[in-house]
Amino acid sequence: MDKKHILIIDDEADIRESTQMCLEIIGEWEVSVASSGYEGLIKAAEEKPDIILLDVMMPGMDGLATLQKLRENSQTAQIPIILLTAKARSSEQRQFNQLDIVAVITKPYDPYSLSDRISEFL
């Protein structure tokens, strides 16, 4: 079976590293990482991952702007996206539900159970 490929777009290095390690070891995912929305757009178009984990709060181009650009690009428009956010108020959750995403995972999350949670969404 081919490994599923996931792209993590998050500006926090420790979150990228811990998430990548858990997904590779526990979920046996192939993992790519990007530290900004801009880098994420390039990697998503080049690598066409099976799913993208996208942080909402990032400097420069935030996650929602990145999401919009991913959806506007025909090469990346169909890739399922899970938002990672520290913001979990119900008003924001409703806003996220309006977006073209498969799920919202609230930080802090348990990196050990993340692979199973992502697999549920695919």
UniProtKB/TrEMBL annotation:
> Signal sequence: where?
none
| Keywords from the UniProt entry | DNA-binding, Phosphoprotein, Transcription, Transcription regulation, Two-component regulatory system
The record, for PROSITE patterns, names:
RESPONSE_REGULATORY
Residue ranges of the Response regulatory domain?
5-122
User: What Pfam families does this protein's entry cite?
Assistant: Response_reg
Query: Does the keyword Transcription regulation belong to this entry?
Result: yes
A Gene Ontology molecular-function term? Answer: DNA binding
Checking SMART domains in the record gives: REC
Instruction: State the CDD domains in the record.
Output: REC_RR468-like
Which sequence positions carry the modification called 4-aspartylphosphate?
A: 55
Output one GO BP term.
Answer: phosphorelay signal transduction system
Q: Does the keyword Secreted apply?
A: no
Name of the protein described by the UniProt record: Response regulator
- Organism expressing this protein natively: Halomicronema hongdechloris C2206
Q: Taxonomy-wise, where does this protein's organism fall, top ranks first?
A: Bacteria, Bacillati, Cyanobacteriota, Cyanophyceae, Nodosilineales
